[in-house]
Amino acid sequence: TVTSIGNYAFKNCSNLTEAEIHHYTNDVISTPLTIGTDTFDNTGGTDNFPFTLKIHSDTFWNTLESAVGWQTNLIPNLGLESSTLLDYTIIDGTTIIAADGFKNTNLLKITIPNTVSSIGNSAFEDTNSLESCTLPTNSGFTAIPDKCFYNSLLKTIEIPDTVSSIGNSAFEGTYGLGSCTLPTNSGFTAIPDKCF
After folding, report:
1. Do 23 and 32 touch, CB atoms closer than 8 A?
2. Which of 35, 53, 72, 170 gets the highest tally of CB atoms within 10 A of its CB?
3. Cα(86)–Cα(76) distance, integer angstroms
4. Distance from C-alpha of 102 to C-alpha of 129, rounded to nearest angstrom
5. What is d(CA 15, CA 111) in angstroms, rounded to the nearest whole number?
């Protein structure tokens, strides 16, 4: 098992258009993967086919610190270009996605396990590349918070029938949204200000 990737390990690999890493090397002990400086700096990809980094969280996110830690502690060290797209998979068993957890990142796709019951405000705000997101359908997931997908690139969203409330501006600025399925349960009675 690889436990560390060195400085400039893939720098200037002009034909490298995709990579897949695990944030943690052991999902039981939760030993962080050590990433060197500018690991993927100046990798391949074009405007039409940018470099895509697929990241697995491999740990449980139950506090604000651990939820946003991947962004503050891992991503800046990779030397990623501004056009790099992120395909992120959250490990099954995670229950919380913190406020601002993925705010202002180049998420292309996010996989949220059905164990998640809470998503914080602005969790996916300004994710200008995010086209799709599958929401949890468990009975504990009842609310989409304020500005959850504000100014994202979502094209379609299916809001599960367990949801009874949607926060203000939850989908505001998603101008590419072509399809939205709303809940039909009796508890869902209002569409809030600036929802879309």
Report:
1. yes
2. 170
3. 13
4. 12
5. 27
Q: Which 3 state secondary structure label does DSSP give 93?
A: coil
Burial of 187 (0-12, 13-18, 19+ CB in 10 A): exposed
pTM above 0.85, yes or no: no
For 28, the 3-state DSSP assignment is coil
Block residue for tokens 């994710």: 127
Q: How far apart are CA 156 and CA 133, in angstroms?
A: 8
* The three-state (H, E, C) secondary structure of 103-167, written as one string: CCCCEEEEECCCCCCEECCCCCCCCCCCCEEECCCCCCCCEECCCCCCCCCCCEEECCCCCCEEC
What's the half-sphere exposure (Cβ side, CA atoms, 13 Å) at 155? 6
Element (H or E) spanning 21, and its range?
strand 18-22
Q: From residue 40, how far is each of 1, 86, 175 by CA, in Å?
A: 20, 13, 32
Query: Cβ neighbours of residue 68 under 8 Å, at least 6 residues apart?
Result: 98, 100, 101
Q: How many residues does the structure list for the chain?
A: 196
